[in-house]
Amino acid sequence: ILAVIAISVPSIFNVAIEPNKVAVEELSLATAAVMLIIYGLAILYQFKSQTPEEELAPGIKTSHTAHRWNPQVALGILVAAVVGIAIMSEFLVGSVEPVTESLGMSAFFVGIIIIPLIGNVAEHMVAVQVARKNQMDLSLSIANGSSLQIALFVAPVLVFLSLALGNPLTLEFNNFELIALTTAAVIAAFISVDGRSNWLEGAMLLAVYAILALAFFFLPAVL
User: How many C-beta neighbours within 10 Å does residue 46 have?
Assistant: First the structure.
């Protein structure tokens, strides 16, 4: 909900006043800074919270042994992964235009629906696997954590990077994007609030996603 508010405010601000690009850019920068602070606090809170192993009832033991890397190995693998992702991202971005032309899809639809699905396929598989093992808390944490990372970390970082590159990016979105974002946040909160789930709720979530995907497919590239 916080992410929805933070992303919505610059757009509402731009509508509430006469068009003022400088003011919207400054508000976007300030909002991005607040979002990064909140994301940092969220990460800190997760580290300080109890681990799942500590929350297990007495007498229950985990069936796996943790394998720990030393800091040097972990850092090296992280750097290699980042470099690999950067290279693959260049190939992905370069192939978007030919794909959109050959399939008749808009770049907007590909960026909103197709690329996130492909980019997070491993994460989606993990969430489904743990959900099949009835570990719904972990599955929801994976899904919500990914969404929060994009909204509270990636988006603000892009705002600051765009400023450094001389082409300022704002957190201003069109009305349909805001409605879609709010709908997704509300339905996710509604499903998660009671701590229970079933196959019908899962089907409804997929239906909402399919409807939004269809809407973005038919949405004009420029509104």
Answer: 11
**Backbone Cα Rg of the chain:** 20
- Torsional sign, CA 21, 23, 26, 28: negative
CB-based contact 154:145 (threshold 8 Å): no
The pLDDT assigned to 54 comes to 45
DSSP 182: H
What residue segments make up the domains of the chain, in order of their start? Answer: 2-51+103-218
- How distant, in Å, are the alpha carbons of 105, 122, 123, 137, 205 from that of 128? 28, 10, 9, 12, 14
10-residue mean pLDDT profile of the chain (223 residues): values are: 83 75 86 92 81 45 61 86 81 76 79 82 85 82 82 89 86 86 84 78 88 87 56
DSSP letters, 11-59, are HHHHHHSS--HHHHHHHHHHHHHHHHHHHHHHHHHHHHSPPHHHHSPTT
Q: How far apart are CA 142 and CA 184, in angstroms?
A: 16
- For the entire predicted model, the pTM comes to 0.74
User: Residue written as tokens 């929350």?
Assistant: 55
165-220-3 Cα angle (round to 5): 55
- Position 57 scores a pLDDT of 41
Q: Residue 120 gets which letter from DSSP? A: T
Cβ pair 180, 155 in contact under 8 A: no
